[in-house]
Amino acid sequence: MTPSYPVSRPRRLRRTPPMRRLVAPVSVRPAGLVQPLFVKEGIGEPQPVASMPGVVQHTRDSLRKAAAEAVTAGVGGLILFGIPAVKDGRGSAADDPDGIVQVALRDLAADLGGETVLMADLCLDEYTDHGHCGLLTSGGEVDNDATLDRYAAIALAQAEAGAQVVAPSGMMDGQVAAIRTALDSAGHADVAICAYSAKYASAFYGPFRDAAECAPQFGDRAAYQQDPAARDALREVLLDVEEGADIVMVKPALAYLDVISQIAARVRLPVAAFQVSGEYAMVEAAAANGWLDRDRTILETLTAISRAGADIILSYWAAEVAQRLT
Ligand code: PBG
Q1: Catalytic residue at 251?
Q2: Of 64, 101, 112, 277, which residue is most buried, by most CB within 10 angstroms?
Q3: Is it the case that residue 68 has pLDDT exceeding 90?
Q4: pLDDT of residue 4
Q5: Distance between terminal CA atoms of the chain?
Q6: Rounded to the nearest whole angstrom, what is the distance from the C-alpha of residue 100 to the centroid of ligand 1?
Q7: Residue 300 CB burial class (10 angstroms; 0-12, 13-18, ≥19)
Q8: Domains in the chain with CATH codes
């Protein structure tokens, strides 16, 4: 039945693909995508990560190749995670100039330093034998202030190896200030800090802990990462801004779109979001079962994260999507 009065017709702007394209304010920007990459010390061949089909732990050589391919595909940056051959209580390999991430950063800086943005995850959990993100007290708690000195040392090692951005992900109070001070006093004022500011104690990191071999050996990270039910994201972000963060990040992404949009509305710095391992794994698993259209689902999640207000998205699909969009 034709309405007898002029009705509003939103469908007019949805009729054709060119019309929809014309009026869509949100798009996923390939140059805003960052590819996470894992590099493991002492392996001869890339090792598949069972819970992340399509993702591998790289050798030094396979990392160089994957990094070059991601850059050619059009991603805006790379973020490196290292898995050392030997772990200990203080995560000594994390700031060893010959540690796996430093060696890999030097490789990538030589290959691609002028063409992309090289980022390094800055944390201790991949390097400690107990799997926690900081040093432990004798009572088994994570010691905030003692950990800050370790983070400062790691920042210097990564900067010296060629990281252009360091990304502290351990959620220690004061970590951004400690790292900024250390970088500035060692002549690395140009190295930027992408702070994992609003990082939740999330079940979505499960597959990453396989990929980076960093599951906590006792307890969990709830005493330092944020509680999914709390309202402390803005407070954490504003502290990091005050301490000198250049980019602030929300993590995970899809379950925290409200947090991304709240931060984007309040903060004038670039906002990043990390589409984490569990977000990747659940789409890949459903797609492998034929339950979801993989490519459409991936693009829809990235569009949603962009629409919420993320300028930068870290995603295991970054290179694939950049390739698809350019
Ligand atoms: C800690 C770190 C984690 C991730 C990035 N940095 C794991 C954790 O906090 O347990 C998770 C990334 C992902 O799940 O994709 N170094």
Answers
A1: yes
A2: 101
A3: yes
A4: 79
A5: 44
A6: 18
A7: middle
A8: 28-325 (3.20.20.70)
Cα–chain center distance at 69: 19
1: pLDDT strictly greater than 80? no
Which residue's structure tokens are 């994201």? 233
Global pTM reads 0.97
Nearest CA residue ID for atom 16, ligand 1: 123
Q: For 248-301, how does the pLDDT look when each residue is reduced to its tens digit (9 = 90+)?
A: 999 999 999 999 999 999 999 999 999 999 999 999 999 999 999 999 999 999
Query: What secondary structure letter does DSSP report for 124?
Result: S
Active-site position among 40, 65, 87, 251: 251
Model confidence over 150-182: pLDDT tens digits? 999 999 999 999 999 999 999 999 999 999 999
- Verify whether ligand 1 is closer than 6 Å to residue 277 (CB atom): yes
pLDDT 10s digits, 100-154: 999 999 999 999 989 999 999 999 999 999 999 999 999 999 999 999 999 999 9
The verdict on whether 199 is a catalytic residue reads: yes
Residue nearest to atom 8 of ligand 1 (CA): 205
Q: In the chain, where does DSSP find H-type helix? A: 17-23, 60-73, 100-112, 144-161, 175-185, 206-211, 233-243, 257-266, 277-288, 294-308, 318-325
Q: What is the DSSP string of 170-185?
A: S--TTHHHHHHHHHHH
94 lines ligand 1 (CB under 6 A): no
Q: How far is the CA of 204 from the centre of ligand 1 (A)?
A: 9
Q: Is 291 exposed, middle or buried (0-12, 13-18, 19+ CB in 10 A)?
A: exposed
**Centre of ligand 1 from the C-alpha of residue 105, in Å:** 19
Q: Is 287 exposed, middle or buried (0-12, 13-18, 19+ CB in 10 A)?
A: middle
Using most ligand atoms within 8 A of CB, pick from 80, 194, 205 the residue to mutate for ligand 1.
205
User: Is 317 near ligand 1, meaning CB less than 6 Å away?
Assistant: no
Task: Name every residue whose Cβ is closer than 8 Å to that of residue 272 and which is 6 or more positions away in sequence.
Answer: 34, 194, 247, 248, 249, 250, 310, 311, 312, 313, 314
